[in-house]
Fold these 4 entries.
Entry 1:
Amino acid sequence: MLAMPLLLISPVFASTYANEAQAKLRDIDDSVAQVRRQADQMNTYVHIGTASSDSDLSRLIEIREEVNHAGQEIESLEAERSALAPWERQALDKTMPLMREIAANTERAILCFNENKGHLWASQFSNYVTNIYNESKVANQNLGKSLELAHLRKEEHQLERSASSASGM
C-alpha cells in the first residue's frame, strides 16, 4: 500500500490566498466596469453621430488596456485554479468567455474605426461597441453577484461563530 504525503495548508495561508483571489476578482470586476462605462459613452456618441474623433480612438485604447489588465488577472487566477474556492472557479469560468468576446470585439472595433473614420455610422462599428457594452455588462453583473454572495457567506460564518461563542459552545 502506497502512503500519500499529506499536504497541510496553514489556515493563515489559505485565508491570505482567498483574500488575494477575491482582490483579483474585484480588480477584474473594476476593469470590466470601466470597459462598460467607456463602451456606453461610445455607444451614445455613435448613435448621435459624433463618433470618429481621436478621443473615440483613445476610449477604444483604454478599453483594450482594461481588457488586457483583466486578462492578466484571469491568467494569474487560472494558474492557481486548484487553490481557488468553488465559487471563485465558477466566477472565473463565467467571466473568461465573456472577456475573450470583449477582447475580440474591441480589436474589431479598433480596426473598423481605423478603416472607416469618416463614416462610422455606415460600418459595423456600432455593433462592435454595443457587443462590448453588452458583454461587459453581463460579466460585471456575474462578478458582482459572485463577490456579494461571498461577502454574505463570510458574514454568515462570522455571525455563526459569534453566536456559538456567546452561547458557550
Entry 2:
Amino acid sequence: MHAAALSAGRGETNLQAVPTSPACPGRASPGKVGSFKVPSGRGGSTQLAVANISSRGVATGVGAGTTAIKATYQTVVGGTPLTVTQATVASIEVTRPQASIVVHQSEQFSATAVYTDGKRVPVTAQAAWTSESVSPTYPGYATVISGSAQAGVTTGVIAGNTLIHATFGGQTGNAPLTVTPVGPAPTPTPTPTPTPTPTPTPTPTPTPTPAGGLVSITVSPGNTTLPVASGAETQRGQYLAFGNYANAPSALLTNVQWSSSNPAVAGINASTGMATVAQTGEAGQNTVITAQVDNVQGTSTLTLASANLLSVAVYGTDPTSGIANNALNNGGQLNYHAIAYYDDNSTEDVTSDAVWSATTPSGGSVPVVPVTITNGGVVTAGSTSNTAIIAATYNGFTGMLNLQVNPAPRRRPRCPSNS
C-alpha cells in the first residue's frame, strides 16, 4: 500500500490524511488493512471497488487499482492517493526432512510459494513435481508424485544424486536429494539394463516377393514374455513376419494374416500384427501367435509374466481433508498409505497388505516412539513430541517416511475489529 499525504488549508487550519501502521499485519494487496489519521473528521474512498475506509480511518484493500482517500473536517478536505496491488509468486521454496534417503525409502517434500508482498503460502498439493538426475558419473533416480493427495512424496529408486523440482505460479524451486544404496556398501548402484521389449530392431524396407516361392515364415520376436495387464495399464507388443525363400534372401512380409490361439491371454490385430494383453490374462498363461501367407505359417509363443516390484512409497493424509501431511500435533491422527511401484509402470495400493511399524531415529537421547500405528496404517500421536519413522513392508520392500510430532499449538489472540 503506497500513499502520499495531501493537505487542504483554510486560513491557519490544515488537515492531512496520514497513513499509519496497520492494526494487524497484512500484505500490500487486496485484503490488507491500513489506518489513516483523521482528526475529528469524516473519511471516504472514491473507488469502493479498490478500497473502503471506516469512519475511524481504517482502509481495507478490495481489488487492484488506485483510489483517493479523503478526510473532511468541517469545511476543510484533505486527501491522499492509495494504490492496491495484486501480489504475485516471487519464488518457490522446496524443503524435505532429510537430504539423503536409501533406495526404496520415501519422504515427503513440501513446497511454499513466497509472494511479492512477503506472504508465504503452502502449495505442496497444487505444485507440479518432477525429479532430475544431476550427476553424469553418479546419476541417481527418484520418483516423485504430482497432482494427487500424496503430492511431493519421493521414493529413491537408483542410488545417486537428484534434484526434486516444484513448479507453481510460473516459478520453480528445487532441493537436492541423495539416494544411497541399501546396506553399508559405499559404491553407487549401477544403472540397471532396461528390460527388453518384444519390439524388434528397426523395420527393414519390404521387398517384392521373388519368383522362387515362399518356403517358410519367421515371426519376430520369437518366443517372448509380456507383463500381465494391470488396471488401466495396457501391455502391447509389435510382431513382424519375415519370408524365407528358396532362391532369394529373406524379406519383410506385408500381406500377412495374424491370429492368436488364445485371445483370453492376448489378442492380435489381424492386419498390423500388434498384440495386446487381455485383462483376463494371468501370469504363466501363454498363447501362440501365428503369421500366415497363403498356406505357409510361422509361429511364436507369447507368455504372460508378473511385473517386478521396484519400490514401496509411504505417505500420510489428513483423515478429514484427505490432503497429504507430514506432521502431527499431540493427540492428532493421520491415515498412512503404501503404494507399490512395478517395472511395467503400474502401481498398486498395498496399504491393507503391508506390515506397518513405527520407530525413532537411531542416536536419540530419549528413544520414545511418539505414536501408535495399526496394521491398516492409522497413526495416532501420543503426548510425546518427537520424530517417528513410519515404515510399511510389502514383499521384501520397505517404504519409510519421517513424521514429526509437535506439541499442540496454543490459541492465538484475535486481532481487534477495525470497523
Entry 3:
Amino acid sequence: MIQLPLAAVGAGIALVLSPLAVAEKPAAVTVAGKGVLTICRDWILFRSCKSYDKIDLPPRVAVGDKLILTFGSNPKDYLFHVVEIRQKGQGCLLLTEESKGHEDRERVEVPRCEPAAKPAAEPQ
C-alpha cells in the first residue's frame, strides 16, 4: 500500500520538474533595444563591478559571438565574447567566460530579447 502513494509522489515530482529539464538555454536571441554592460574586477580581498547603460547591440546575438561594445562618456571599446545566454522573463543575460556561470559578475543585461529562429539549412 505504501508503494502506490510513493509512486504517485515520485510521478508528481517528475511532472513538476520536467519543464525545467526541457527548458534549454537559447543558442541565439534577437535583441530589441539597448543593453547594460557590467564589468567586474577581482581584487585580492573583494570584487568591484561597474555598469554602463545604453550599450548598442546587434539585432541578433549567438553563443560564440565576439561583440565589440562601445561605452562611456570617453568612448571605450570592449571585446565581449558570448559563452552563454540565459532567458530572464522578457529579457536575457549574456555571459562571458569571466562570469564563470554567475549572474552577478561580468554580463550584458538585455531588457527585451527572444530566442532566435534557427537558420535554415543551406541546400547542398
Entry 4:
Amino acid sequence: MKYSLLNPPNSFYAKIAPYKIELVYENGPRILIGRGSAGAVTALRLHELDHVKKNGDVEIGDFLEINDSARLIVGGKHHVDGLIVNTLSQSAALLQEINSSNKFNFTKLAPSDLLKIGSNVVVTTNCIVQSGAFIGDNCILGPGTICSSPVQDNSIIFSNNGIKTLPAKKQVRWWDGTYSEIIQFTKDGLPPTKSIDRQRIPVVVCAVTKIVNATIKSLEIIGVKNDGVYVAMGDLPEHKKNYLSTLDDRPLVVDDEILY
C-alpha cells in the first residue's frame, strides 16, 4: 500500500503509532522512528545521502511532538554549525533558505555528525534541528531554536540562548510503558507500572517511494520486523496484513498488540 504524505489519512499515523517505523530507500541511511513519532516524516529533509549512509543510522525516539513549521535536516550542515541558538528572525530566514532547497549551502559531514533525537521531545515553531544534534529525552526546543549540538536529557531551550532543566517531577519516563498504558497515562496522569522491552517493539518497514526537493512525499509499507527478523508484507499472517493494508478504513481501530 502506497501513501501520499501530502494529505496523509489520519488512520495512517494512528494505526502505526504503537509501533516503530523504519524508512528505507536507495543510497540513504536507515531512519528509525519511534512510537507515536510518525509526524517526523514530513519534517525530514534528506541531503547528501551517499555520505550519510556510510556513517550509520538516524534515530528519532518515541512520542516526538513537532510543529508543522519545524525542520529536521539529515545529511547537510549550514553556516550555524555547532550552535544552539534561539532567534526567531535567524531561524525564519534559514527556514526560507531550506525550503527553497537549491539555495541551501552544504558542507561535508564528519563521521559522528548524525541526527539523533530522544523520546518525549517537543520541537516548536520554526525550529531547525540539523545533523550533529544529539537531543536527549524529555526536552523542549523553544520557538526559533536552531540546534546542531548535543542537548542533555530534561533540557528546555528558550529565548536568548538560555537552557533550563525540567523539574524533577516532570522527569518521568512514561514512554517506557506499553502503548495501552501510555494512552491511559494521558487520560489519568498515572505513569505506567511496568516497562516494555523496547527491543521487542515491532517495526513497520516503509520504502520511501518519492522524494522531491529533499522532502519525502510518499511511502509504501513493505513489511514488519519482529525481534530483528524481517517478514515481507506478502508473507505476513492474514490478520497482520489486513491491519496494515486497510489503513483508510473507518471506523478507526488501533491495535497495539496485533503486530507482535
